[in-house]
């Protein structure tokens, strides 16, 4: 499976409506703390925008809702994975991306035979407090040797200036939150990302 080199992560369907039509081909809906009815509405709207735009939609965390809403890709962290029903996810035909932050998590992730592995935080992130120091580029290169043919996603502190480094060190896709949504002009920044990732598309 090939992943687009630009992996946008946002926390609402409204962001998806704003940014995906610019040409984004891989987006994650990462919503925290929302009640189920509203969450379902967000997923359903995101799904319909992505279907029209030919963009792959990944649902973070909520694998049961993803199945029920007919989505086809979920991202889970290690705590999410520990509580998830992998057989149900596979039975429903969902593709699965998994987070990793150290060797033990990588071993757990590979046991689950995911469709991609994410490594983070490659650089310091301001989005959330993390237990891990920045992994650095050499760690990405090491992960690339371990994950086999499946794509490797780099996440954490990325911006267009850091892309060449992460791709040179083995990342297949670069995931981003704050560099885009906290930018004064998120649409212009999204276009910069699209252009900066074009050589790897
Ligand atoms: C592409 C990608 N990589 C890592 C994460 C982090 O997932 P997780 O560790 O479950 O943390 P939360 O995002 O749920 O806070 C991700 N979402 N996407
Ligand atoms: C959600 C998330 N997960 C990470 C991990 O390392 O698993 S880093 C991260 C935040 C990514 O946001 P930004 O691009 O703003 O740094
Ligand atoms: Mg999670």
Automatic annotation (TrEMBL):
GO MF terms, alphabetically ordered: thiamine-phosphate diphosphorylase activity
Pfam families reported for this sequence: TMP-TENI
Keyword Transferase included in the entry's annotation: yes
Enzyme Commission (EC) number: 2.5.1.3
Membrane-spanning segments: none
N-terminal signal peptide: none
The keyword Hydrolase is annotated on this UniProt entry: no
UniProt keyword list: Magnesium, Metal-binding, Thiamine biosynthesis, Transferase
Ranges for domain Thiamine phosphate synthase/TenI: 12-180
Family: Belongs to the thiamine-phosphate synthase family.
Protein name, entry field: Thiamine-phosphate synthase
